[in-house]
Amino acid sequence: MRLNNKSIDINDSVNIDVLGNSKINIINPDSDIKLNIHLKDNSNLIINDFNETKNDIDYNIIQDNNSIFNMYHTFRISDNYNINYKVNFLGNNNINNVYIHGVSNGMVSMNVDGILPSGGENNIVNEDIKVLTIHGSCFISPMLHVSNLNVIANHKTAISKIDENIIFYLESKGINRASAEELIENGYLYGIYEDKEFIKRIRSDINE
Amino acid sequence: MLKIDNLTVSVNNKIILKDFNMEIKDSEVVALMGPNGVGKSTICKVIMGDPNYIVESGSITYNNEDLLKMDVVTRSKKGIYLVNQNPIEVEGVTNADLLRSAVEEKTNERINIFKFDKELTGICDELDIPKSFIHRDVNVGMSGGERKKNEILHLYMLKPDFIMLDELDSGLDVDNLRELSLALTKYLNEDKKRSCLIVTHHTNILEYIKPNKVNILMDKHIVETGDYSLAKKIEVSGFKGEENETK
Lengths: 208, 247
Ligand SMILES: Nc1ncnc2c1ncn2[C@@H]1O[C@H](COP(=O)(O)OP(=O)(O)O)[C@@H](O)[C@H]1O
Ligand SMILES: [Mg+2]
Fold this sequence. Notes:
heterodimer; A: seven-stranded parallel sheet; 16% helix; globular; B: alpha/beta; disordered C terminus
């Protein structure tokens, strides 16, 4: 498949070449997803991804030159869930931003790998991963293979429990615990999307 | 009416209040004063039901019911409301989200968005709060004074009967303190059931919301009770008489 200035919906396992400005939206896939994505020179891709299913995701990203990749991924899981994410830079001047926010009520395991080979100059990787473990657990294994000094690699992960002080605060306004947790979760998840249309789609999708 | 009898409270296995007694009748405004760290915020948290604060002995009755048997949500639904000393930030949850949830749970029916928005907007006008607050995350990125205002916005929407103001004056400038105090006085006067506990270590706020009673908390319990003149005396001579700790 080839994306060129296009926005598509995916529910499958595919190889994608990206040109121009493109966007992929994924809401609750029907099966495990495997995407091999190749960002060609000067391309720009946004992935908006929301998952409440136990279907795993496996993303393999390759970036050539001067490309920008942004992934906004959230999940709310009460089963086993595996995320495999890998980025590899073949050329120079690429940006790769990965934002993952999740709520784990089950077992979540995440491998997030970045390969910044010695040949590539001025590549930037930002990984920002936050997982709220309400009634479950989470394991994150980040790996950045950096063989070039002329790159920037930022990596932030946080796994936290729900803040009981916030629960108390919401309860003191008359909101019961279940609703309080839901409010906090939704804020936590929807908060990362810059695309407000996508939030509307999630809301209508899960209310149907 | 709220009545506290011989209350002993601990936090982290440390006794903070011992044989604490206090009574707040309907339509009364009662001030609780005392130096830093004596347990003023503690008593507010206990009344609200914060699980970090353990009641070792004693009782609290609210409108002749055993308050200590009620969970936090029940206390709130029965009309108890705390304006925290440092209102907490709730990221990702807007004032509208919070209030919609709270009002729906209280009334047990789905909210009419049109009426709800109109009411919130009206309250913002009355309290001189920017309407943009409605869709801001609760207390996130707000100054100390703005957070207090934000809590009063919630209060106006939830219409509690027994209000605790924990250091409302901290973070508010004089003009804001006066305006909010006037608004609260008006709110309290609208219904005879309404009463208020003002926790402070300054007397400024008491000039605007006149207390019927002033209690001084020291050494884990109330050591002195009087009228407004007691607060004035404290302002001049401090809590311990000689050194001036009020400012
Ligand atoms: N959550 C808490 N954990 C541990 N200690 C606390 C907690 N809350 C209050 N304390 C302690 O209890 C005492 C009274 O605190 P507080 O009620 O906040 O005082 P005040 O409001 O009068 O300044 C202080 O010694 C304080 O350190
Ligand atoms: Mg205090």
